[in-house]
Write a structure and sequence with these properties.
The chain is an alpha/beta fold and about 325 residues long. The chain is built from eleven helices and 13 strands. The protein starts with a helix and ends in a 5-residue tail after the last strand. The structure holds S-adenosylmethionine. S-adenosylmethionine (SAM) binds next to α4 and α6.
Length: about 325
């Protein structure tokens, strides 16, 4: 959680008066919601980049961790091993949130605005002085597994451009943290189809890859409720912009099979090996074999598993789908 006092000395204009800051925040908000044709201004004027970085940076920053809390832990761990491309990084919002979350990482910050990149560099240098990162207007060639993140930037580019970027980068995972608007929903529903065709599976928020059942005039988004540092809350009150209740669109696509929480009924004990307890489980629509990994269990938990009987229900998180009928999993056991 950042305070305004922490950010202020790092701003491109660190002498911005409070009056100008609030005026700038209003101007930015207006250009996001009403005067879309003036949207270029906030990235090309030092005072407006500073206003964005004082208010939208700290209030967007928290959305990454919120999003991760909705994904299986094992999947988030996997993301942490990839190189992040923060596309439309602005002042470095989600790349910095990524480094803060994982406490390490390789990040490439991409933005069309020199001023935004300059601000992102200043934040990185201060908050993560030992981290090397790339700042660029174009996406460089990157080796190894990649996560491509669009952070409030998909809504500023065309769908064709977003599609081209994905085609070029060929990331393993694609994340979107965007405004919770109908327009973004419509963009993503179209993009989702193309991503599915390219072998990406929807990991969040949809429960599968079938057509979205939401009717034409409606749309799907999430809402994050939070409280920011008192100094940011103060800016929020002065600017009369609510950032405690934030509608957002969080979508996750991946080449990896979808994992997640499952519940089934144990119908057969198969074997205990050096690495796992193996069961046949009825999932309602299908029967699967699950290997409950010993390395994820304490001695006490292994004892609970050994005492589990056929006929009992079991909740588990899939760590790896070997195929549609064989999962490596971690059981969710009640404490005590
Ligand atoms: C609303 S800001 C989001 C900044 C940051 N990701 C956040 O969520 O706080 C959108 C950013 O996307 C950048 N952007 C828009 N179109 C772009 C493009 N075609 N290439 C690179 N950056 C772009 C803008 O310059 C701006 O900094």
């Amino acid at each position: 959680m950042y305070s305004f006092d922490q950010l202020k000395p790092l701003l491109l204009n660190s002498n911005l008066s409070e009056g100008k800051l609030i005026k700038g925040i209003h101007q930015i908000q207006h250009s996001f919601t009403k005067e879309l044709e003036r949207r270029d201004e906030y990235i090309s004027e030092r005072d407006l980049v500073s206003a964005y970085s004082s208010f939208y940076f700290p209030t967007n920053f928290v959305k990454l961790e919120w999003g991760f809390s909705h994904l299986p832990e094992s999947f988030v761990e996997q993301l942490g091993e990839t190189h992040l491309i923060d596309f439309g990084c602005g002042p470095g919002t989600f790349g910095l949130a990524w480094l803060e979350f994982f406490k390490k990482g390789n990040v490439t910050f991409i933005d069309q605005s020199d001023l935004m990149l300059k601000q992102a560099k200043a934040f990185l240098r201060f908050f993560h002085p030992n981290t090397e990162a790339t700042f660029s207007k174009t996406i460089p060639l990157i080796e190894g597994p990649i996560t491509l993140l669009f952070g409030n930037s998909l809504n500023e580019i065309s769908l064709d451009d977003a599609h081209d970027i994905i085609e070029r980068v060929r990331p393993d995972h694609v994340l979107f943290i965007e405004p919770g608007t109908k327009l973004v929903y419509q963009q993503l529903i179209t993009l989702r189809k193309k991503l599915n065709e390219k072998g990406y599976m929807t990991h969040y928020p949809c429960l599968g890859d079938k057509d979205c059942p939401i009717t034409k005039n409606d749309w799907c988004h999430q809402v994050m409720r939070t409280k920011h540092h008192d100094s940011i809350e103060r800016l929020s009150q002065k600017a009369k912009i609510d950032r405690r209740t934030m509608p957002l669109t969080f979508h996750v696509y991946s080449k990896e099979q979808r994992t997640g929480l499952y519940q089934g009924r144990i119908i057969q004990f198969l074997r205990e090996s050096k690495f796992s307890f193996d069961y046949k489980v009825c999932m309602g629509e299908s029967i699967v074999e699950i290997q409950l990994l010993k390395k994820s269990l304490s001695k006490k938990q292994q004892k609970v598993i050994k005492e589990t009987n056929v006929g009992q229900e079991i909740k588990f998180e899939v760590v790896k789908k070997v195929n549609d009928e064989l999962f490596k999993a971690q059981p969710l056991l009640r404490e005590g």
